[in-house]
Fold this protein.
Amino acid sequence: MFTVPDKVEGDNDIQSIWFQEYIDALVAGIQGIDCVLVGCGVTGGADMTPAVAKGAVLTNGVLKAVTAGDVTIGAAHASLPRIDLIVVDSSGAKQVRAGTAASAPKPPARSANDVLLASVYVAANDTTIGTGCIDDKRVPCTQGPIVIFKETTVRSQNTSAAAVSLFAAAPVIPNGLFLAGRILRVRTGGNVLHNTTTGMTITVIITYGGTTIFSDVALTYGTTADTDRQAWRLEFDLVASASNAQKLVGFWLAQGPTVTPPATGIGDIATDEQLGVSPIASANGGIAVDSDAADRTLDITFTMSNSNASHEWVREYVTVELL
């Protein structure tokens, strides 16, 4: 990972110098703002197109998948060296930030929230970027919990009997990130309105990579109309027991439809009326989705049993952490 060669270790002693750009990238990585979660190593070759391995990064704290592929280093100056940077930009694309050729060159400024992968020493009149030209500048974020997804804008649904995602945009887990030994910890909660005498159930479905790992009718409301909103909370861990095997365990907590809330807030303390306080887990030992073969979507849907303007669920927030 992040390296600064000692003198005579690289192709040139300039590679052993600390620059402000390197320090800034190191600080941003340590803070978990712009860092590498997995992969993204850079290797040289026989021409001016070093290869970047697949991986995942956080850019400004936002998860981005990085596809494997080459980047192109521009033609070398005829008589002066320069230092280029290989980065992943804020959109998740691989980029080369070209430096300025000089007798004592320094790296160029990165664009906002570039994730630094490597610095490249481009010697005068060079036509090959070999291993000795490349310094690894990845700053890894490997110790969890690492927040890889968060939505705090309220999301709600009524007048629908369809399966509707709790996410405004369901998180995509990059290829190669959620491998054996890793855990995705999901937390979400909100409230439900049942202000009608028509009965209602809500089915909760959790999927990973398009495969259902949990499905159940989690909430059953009676036929008493109530203008009070009732709280719910869902927490679960999705565990990668292998890179192609996932298990789920967690719990569901929901308040009953006739609990009177306090003067301020939603819910109640020390009430024994709960609509559901239940452990949840994956059936039959889990599912088998290969997380090292493609990007995989994690999703949670709610399905109300009938369409009614007075039947509504609200999701206040959702977080996904990598452990």
The mean pLDDT is 90.
